[in-house]
Write a structure and sequence with these properties.
Radius of gyration: 42 Å
CATH superfamily: Nucleoside phosphorylase domain
Shape: globular
Number of helices: 9
CATH topology: Rossmann fold
Order of helices and strands: HEHEEEHEEEEHHHEHEHEH
C-alpha cells in the first residue's frame, strides 16, 4: 500500500505541473494576440514614384463687362454734348454711338424756341446728345451752344469734334501729319483784336481771353498725357477707327502718304480752286520722318488750338502765330462753345493750314477725331 500512495502522489504532482504549463501557454498566447492587434497594418510594398498628378487649371475669369448707359428718363439726364459743324463730322460721331435713343422709344424733342437739330444716343456709359450746327464759324457755334443749354440743362462736358488745319511741327519739333488728332489744352481766339496802320494786334489780356479748362478737364488731360494712358488712348482710338472703315459711305480709308505733302511755308499754291496735281504745284517739300511708313497710325497731340472766323490758308501766317502762341491747330468753332460749357476740342488734321489745303483728307480726319472722342469719353467719369 505504501508503494501505491507514492505512485498516486507522483501522479497528482505530474497532473498539477501539466495544468500549470497549459495555463502559462494560454497566457502567452493571449499576450501575443493583444500585441498583434495593437501593431499597425504593414505598409504595402513600395512602388516606383510616378509623375505627380497635374492640377486642373482654374477656368479663366472673363473681364467684367463695361458699364453701359441706360435710357434717360428725359433731357435732364444727358451730361455729354458733342458739337459738329459739318455733316461729315457728325456722320463719323453718329457711327460710333453704341445705341441710338432716337430709334428706341419716344423722341426727347427740345425746349420751345430751340432751333437746333439733335441726335441722341449712348457712348459707353454716357448718354450723349449730338448737336448739328447749321454752318461753320464762331457765331453759329455760340448760338448752338446757348440753345443746347436750354434743352439739355445738365450738360457737364461739351466736346467740339471735327477737322482742323494742323501746324506741321510743335514747338519742341514733334511732327504732326495729316490724320493726327489735336486735343485742346486751351483755345486762343487769334482773330480777336484791333486792326492798326502797322498791322493787326490781337487782344489777349486776361479779360479778353477765353480762359483755361476747368479743374476736372485739366486733371484728366494730365492723366492722358502720361505714357500708359496715352498708349491706351491711341490703342482704343485705332480700334474705333477700324470699325469706321467698315462703313463704305463714311469713306474713312487712309488716303496714302503720297497725298500727304507739306510745301515750304513761303511756297504759294499756283491757282486757287484747283488741286496741287491739277495746277502742277512743284515747290520744295519738307521732309517728314513719320511718312516713311505706308500708313502711320494717327497720333494724339495736346496743345493750344487757335479758333477764329478766318480760314487759315497761309503757311507764313500759320507759322508766325504758332510760334507766338504755341499753337498746334487752327479751326473755327470752339471759341463759340467755350464760354457756354466746360469744353474740350478734339480735331483731326485734314490740311496744313496753308494755301495748298484741299478736301481730300477731310473724311479720314473726321473719322480719326471721332475715334479719339470715343476713346477720350472712356476716361470721363459720369457725374
Amino acid at each position: 500500500m505504501a508503494g501505491g500512495h507514492v505512485y498516486l502522489d507522483r501522479l497528482s504532482t505530474h497532473g498539477h505541473m501539466v495544468g500549470l504549463c497549459k495555463a502559462i501557454d494560454d497566457c502567452l498566447a493571449a499576450e501575443r494576440g493583444r500585441t498583434q492587434r495593437d501593431e499597425p497594418d504593414p505598409a504595402p510594398p513600395s512602388q516606383a514614384p510616378g509623375p505627380a498628378p497635374q492640377q486642373r487649371p482654374e477656368p479663366s475669369q472673363p473681364s467684367p463687362p463695361r458699364p453701359q448707359a441706360t435710357r434717360p428718363n428725359g433731357r435732364q439726364d444727358f451730361e455729354i454734348a458733342v458739337v459738329c459743324a459739318l455733316t461729315l463730322e457728325a456722320d463719323a460721331v453718329d457711327a460710333l454711338f453704341d445705341h441710338h435713343w432716337d430709334d428706341d422709344g419716344p423722341p426727347y424733342d427740345k425746349a420751345p424756341g430751340d432751333p437746333n437739330a439733335y441726335s441722341t444716343g449712348a457712348i459707353g456709359r454716357h448718354n450723349v446728345v449730338l448737336a448739328h450746327m447749321p454752318g461753320m464759324g464762331k457765331a453759329n457755334a455760340a448760338a448752338v451752344a446757348v440753345n443746347c443749354r436750354s434743352s439739355f440743362p445738365n450738360i457737364k462736358l461739351a466736346v467740339v469734334v471735327g477737322i482742323c488745319g494742323a501746324v506741321p511741327f510743335t514747338h519742341d519739333g514733334v511732327e504732326i501729319v495729316l490724320g493726327d488728332v489735336v486735343v485742346s489744352d486751351g483755345v486762343v481766339q487769334y482773330d480777336f483784336g484791333r486792326s492798326l496802320p502797322e498791322g493787326f494786334v490781337q487782344k489777349d489780356t486776361l479779360l479778353d481771353s477765353l480762359g483755361r479748362p476747368n479743374t476736372e478737364i485739366r486733371a484728366l488731360l494730365a492723366k492722358l498725357k502720361g505714357i500708359r494712358h496715352r498708349q491706351a488712348l491711341r490703342s482704343r482710338m485705332a480700334d474705333y477707327l477700324k470699325s469706321l472703315r467698315t462703313e463704305p459711305e463714311l469713306a474713312a480709308a487712309y488716303p496714302g502718304t503720297a497725298h500727304d505733302r507739306l510745301f515750304e511755308a513761303a511756297y504759294r499754291h499756283v491757282r486757287d480752286g484747283m488741286s496741287c496735281d491739277e495746277c502742277n504745284c512743284n515747290g520744295p517739300l519738307v521732309s517728314r520722318n513719320r511718312l516713311v511708313e505706308d500708313a502711320p497710325k494717327p497720333a494724339v497731340h495736346f496743345g493750344l488750338i487757335a479758333s477764329g472766323d478766318t480760314v487759315m490758308k497761309s503757311g507764313v501766317d500759320r507759322d508766325r502765330i504758332a510760334r507766338q502762341k504755341d499753337i498746334v491747330g487752327f479751326e473755327m468753332e470752339s471759341a463759340g462753345v467755350w464760354d457756354s460749357f466746360p469744353c474740350i476740342v478734339i480735331k483731326g488734321a485734314c490740311d496744313y493750314a496753308d494755301s495748298h489745303k484741299s478736301k481730300g483728307w477731310q473724311r479720314y480726319a473726321a473719322a480719326t477725331a471721332a475715334a479719339c472722342m470715343k476713346a477720350f469719353l472712356n476716361h470721363w467719369v459720369p457725374h
